[in-house]
Amino acid sequence: AVKSKKAAAAVAAAATKPPIQTYLASAEALVRSGYPTRRYLDDREGWVFTGNSPHNTTVEAEVTREQTDGGSMECKENDPDRALLLGMDCEMVQTASGSALARVSIVGPDGEILYDQLVRPAEPITDYVTQWSGITEEMLTGSNVTSLEAVQARVLQLVSARHILVGHSLENDLEVLRLVHERIIDTSLLFPHSRGWPYRNGLASLSANILKRKLDRA
After folding, report:
1. Which residues of the chain have pLDDT under 70?
2. What are phi and psi of 165, to 5 degrees?
3. What is the model's pLDDT at position 199?
């Protein structure tokens, strides 16, 4: 009886939560925030689009199955978009041309690490900005470092057009990845600055004020 009450309470709690898609950034907000758009594919070299991911057909089938499966308690109480959540964060270094990708990390909806890869920029690095990126010269000289092109290919295997990328000011991450993706949950947009646009809350500030936790950059 206790177990059935807990299960019923879990279902009721899940039913009161707004759908995950409620938190998706609008197309207008993405453009205003400087997110890469599909036109980048036409006039910029080296860009890729998750709409061309080989993973799209598989993910579409999995989502359809979850949405039509009425026999699973988990399917009933969970938003089908939950399985599509992917947290992303990139670390950058500086080159003569500006910021360049040095590390990309992707986690699944339960926090499991799906991808964590160091990247060697094509141009010489002028500043490792270690105090912010955590990247050192030694880290990018090992055998486990790869190229941007290899990372793009792997990301397209992991991220389909249906997936929802979650992060903070992800336009910067997508810019150095040279990746176009359109389903975004951006915490800098979810929690607007008190002074209004174009001001944005920093991640450390949001962590302290919303989660009551100090952001550990170590």
Report:
1. 1-15, 55-77, 217-218
2. -85, 130
3. 81
Give the H or E element holding residue 40. helix 40-43
- How far is 103 from 140, CA to CA, in rounded Å? 9
Q: Within its chain, how far is the Cα of 75 from the centroid?
A: 23
**Residues whose CB is less than 8 angstroms from the CB of residue 27 and which lie 6 or more positions away in sequence, other chains included:** 182
**pLDDT for the residue 75:** 44
CA 133/CA 30 separation, integer angstroms:
24
Q: What is the pLDDT of residue 142?
A: 85
Contact between 160 and 63 (Cβ < 8 Å): no
Under 8 Å between Cβ of 61 and 81? no
**CA angle, corner 93, sides to 200 and 116, nearest 5?**
90
Task: With H, G, I as helix, E, B as strand and everything else as coil, classify residue 66.
Answer: helix
DSSP, collapsed to helix, strand or coil, labels residue 182 as coil
